[in-house]
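Think of the structure tokens as a kind of shorthand, similar to the way a musician reads notation: each symbol stands for something richer, in this case the local conformation of the backbone. In the example below we present two proteins back to back. Begin with the first one, reading the sequence and then the tokens, and try to describe in your own words what changes along the chain.
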Amino acid sequence: MDLETENRIASILLREAAELRRKAEKEGVRAYLEKPNVRHRPNSRFLKATLLGVQQSNKAVETKEMWRARKKEIELEINSSYK
């Protein structure tokens, strides 16, 4: 996991902890005992869009690496033909 993702998750957790702390100041221990509000079904459109974005990004990186490797091969061929 990259640093940006870790920082984003940490900020979400800190925000939730601060909210729970404020709620506990008002309601006491009951705030910690309540079940969190969780959606039962994930947002499939969001997940599909996220996966598609990741796949496109990965493909772009692979293509860029392939062309970099090909350029290096051409340079090696040119250099070896001059020797």
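Once you have a description of the first chain, move to the second and do the same.
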Amino acid sequence: MTTDREPVEQITSSAIAEQTPLPGGDISGASLATLTDGRRVVIKRGPMVEAEGRMLRAMAETGAPVPAVHGWRSHCLVMENIESGAIDAHDRWQALAETLLCLTGSYDEAFGWDEDYALKHVEVPNSRSGNWADFWRDNRLLCHLPHLDAEVAKRVVALAERLHDLLPSAPAPALVHGDLWGGNIVHANDGRAVLIDPCAYIGHREVDAASLTMFDNPPSAFFDALQLDHGWQGRQPIYRLWMWLVHVRLFGASYRSAVTRELDLLGF
């Protein structure tokens, strides 16, 4: 990984002594590097890492635990390495709730983000909107239509046409992680739930709650701690649907049944 050496040295003022790939990461990989000054840092490469760095810094400003960003250069992002620890399952969910509550604040910005993002080859448009239902319809549902089979596309359009009846137009805005699942949470050895690999924007915080239910089963105490708005359970399939549509485009038709399951739950 000699291509990392020059940008990392420019960012950290220290050379790489040792570098090894980190496990996991279906979309983008990362490596752990030990620097000659003794520090250990995480290095990510790719076309979107500068946007990721800006997202992490925005999240850090809320007080949410995220890796400190040392800097980026030449499509190379250098971050703090978070040491993970063995944390009790109950404590993990409690810590995660505390982390997500940090992202709930007062935001004057419209829903969306100042730049689009991408998960591998799947674009994530973030055009700003003052109406949350409009934002979700245009940037999280209808944008996928050219990539869906005719039957699924028809059902997604039917849902989109009714979205103003199903989603609030102006929920309390929050800075959402946007791609929150177990693989994007590091349970640190100091007990914190640290968020990594964001796909962040100003949105409805129920989005993060929904994505956590795709591959996991959070306890009711976790949702109680988040103090979500009345009726949040009925909106969860709408928010999960975007994630499943992304999975279909990233990983193939094996995820189509998850898309249709959410549409069935919603009655479309």
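Compare your description with these statements about the second chain. The chain has two domains: 2-80, 89-266.
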